[in-house]
Specification:
This is Chromosome (Plasmid) partitioning protein ParB. It comes from hydrothermal vent metagenome. The protein is an alpha/beta fold. Helix content is 48%, strand content 12%. A 5-stranded mixed beta sheet has the order 1-5-3-4-2. Strands 6-7 form a two-stranded antiparallel sheet.
Length: 290
């Protein structure tokens, strides 16, 4: 798979000249004008949640000043499809603008998805579940590795791995993350519970009682909200061991358990895919695993 460093910015995608045959009104600097009605939505758009208030602000700005930044589109099946700038297109439609400035670029489905993803990440407009679903799509449909995804969108591989792990949570909890009722930090902590029922009960408590991330992590260590409420008597870990686990989790970017008994014990490091295992081994060895 050819990996293009699209995460460096969208400016690299703007051509100096338009392809031949593009309808245009005296194009300047590679910008053409297309009928708003002739541009379809992005079939690969990773973003599904559009805030009405922000769209309203954009409409007000466009009504006053017009569409200042051209919309990136591509030709698909004889028509035009938006790649980057879907909010601007939606606002223009709402204002009944007849045409909008565009830049036309020949792009594959793979590149169109990455560009749309990069644009949303740069504008901080995706929630963690939308990001995770888009990364999963790159891996499953376009055969990206986690390294390639990380390079393409300008994030480190540990971040990609942690976001993908969110998709292992029950759909009910994913919906809470999507709706911003449960934070990324809470969701990562919930992954430490083996039981789906325990995860869902603790997630409900997070929403209803405003439990902090630190409190959530403490409840996960004792097995969930019920175990915490019942104060199950069990031997607590030494504070030094807990601190060591926390340090190892930070360094390795995954769940780590230290089980000690007298002068010996076990170190358990969890991984969630072969790519994740390679990443952890690289952290431990201090060099890339071949």
């Amino acid at each position: 798979m050819e990996n293009k460093a699209l995460g460096k910015g969208l400016s690299a995608l703007i051509p100096e000249k338009l392809p031949e045959g593009i309808p245009q009104d005296e194009p300047r600097n590679g910008v053409a004008f297309l009928k708003t009605a002739s541009i379809s939505d992005n079939s690969l758009q990773p973003r599904t949640n559009y805030a009405d208030d922000k769209l309203g602000e954009l409409k007000a700005s466009i009504k006053e000043k017009g569409v200042l930044q051209p919309i990136l589109v591509r030709k698909k099946n004889g028509n035009y499809e938006v790649v980057a700038g879907e909010r601007r297109l939606r606002a223009a439609r709402a204002l009944d603008l007849e045409e909008v400035p565009v830049i036309v670029k020949e792009l594959s489905d793979q590149d169109a998805l990455v560009i749309a993803l990069v644009e949303n990440i740069q504008r901080e407009e995706l929630n963690p579940i939308e990001e995770a679903e888009a990364f999963k799509r790159l891996i499953e449909e376009f055969h990206y590795t986690q390294d390639a995804v990380a390079q393409s969108v300008g994030k480190d591989r540990a971040t990609i791995s942690n976001l993908l792990r969110l998709l292992k949570l029950p759909m009910s909890i994913q919906k809470m993350v999507y709706d911003s009722k449960v934070s990324m930090g809470h969701a990562r902590a919930l992954l430490g519970l083996d039981s789906v029922i325990a995860q869902e009960k603790l997630a409900e408590a997070i929403v209803s009682k405003g439990i902090s991330v630190r409190e959530t992590e403490a409840l996960v260590r004792v097995g969930g909200i019920q175990s915490g409420q019942k104060k199950i008597k069990k031997k607590e870990k030494n504070q030094d061991i807990l601190a060591l686990e926390a340090d190892l989790r930070t360094v390795l970017g995954t769940k780590v358990s230290v089980l000690s008994k007298k002068n010996k014990g076990k170190l358990i490091i969890e991984y969630y895919s072969l790519d994740d295992l390679d990443r952890i081994l690289e952290k431990i060895k201090g060099k890339k695993v071949i």
